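Board notes (copied after class):
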Amino acid sequence: MSERLVTLEDIRQAAGRIRPYAHVTPLLTIGEGGRTLGLKCENLQRSGAFKIRGAANMLLQLRPDERERGVITFSSGNHGIAMSLAASLAGCPAVIVMPTTAPAVKVETARKFGAEIVFEGTTTIERKARAEAEAAARGLTIVPPFDHPWIIAGQGTLGLEILEQAPDAAAVYVPTSGGGLLSGVATAIKSLAPGVRVIGVEPACTPRFTRSLAAGHPVTVPGAAGVADGLLAVRPGDITFAHIQAYVDEIVTLEDEAIIEGVAWLFDHARLVAEPSGAASVAAALARGTTTWSRDGAAAARDVSGPAVAVISGGNVETSAFTGYITTARSSS
């Protein structure tokens, strides 16, 4: 596997490859505080999140014998769901290593598509080690959740869609955990529209990109519990870090309270259901977070004139948890 940066051509090829697997999701626009906010609705994507893009792009490039033996991945939920769906569509066995703390809705959705579920630990590092052991013992091919060029290229197809649907965008906010989505979107956008500011959004409890970019290399942060279960990776990928270091303008961190406000804002203003991980970008665009790293020391993206786009990366949330977020947000407002 080459560690060269993914190219625009890689992303365009991925877009053609995954067309039968992934929807072109809508981009809705809402006026807020005198500024237009675009909502890129990956919560309406097949499997309920953006992850089907990268999962399908990688699965479709494996050799026939690799698909026949089966694939394995490690995931807090959405990548596992996407891998389960893509493997089901391709007639490929799939094993998903999930944390012991994975939300039941994500576990059951992955099972619904026919995947075998294995539980291991609470961190990405623990899940990865178990997946590597299972792959070696069972002859399975690992499809990583973020740190692979094929995954990054697949996620980058979302960036192409944003520029087609919002050609006047001035800033794009993207939730980030291990960095696959942010890497792909930033690569696509900066290749075609370098003046658009790309902002990564991560929880304050696990600021792995804030610290890694400041250090100039990937840094592991302590594991922590947080409301955004899909954004709790403790270390960037090596390949994703290289892309984000090359293309991303700014990192914003958010406390859990701000993320919950984002969930409620989406429901109240757009009647959209988003999981906390997916709503983090919206909360950041609404000036709820703190800029913790900036490439050039320029003003935060919220001060940049022009429309902003927030990627709603997923909507896989349990009903009881969702109603709890809404109640919490309204009681604190």
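Comment from the instructor: The chain has a mean pLDDT of 92. The chain is about 45% helix and 15% strand.
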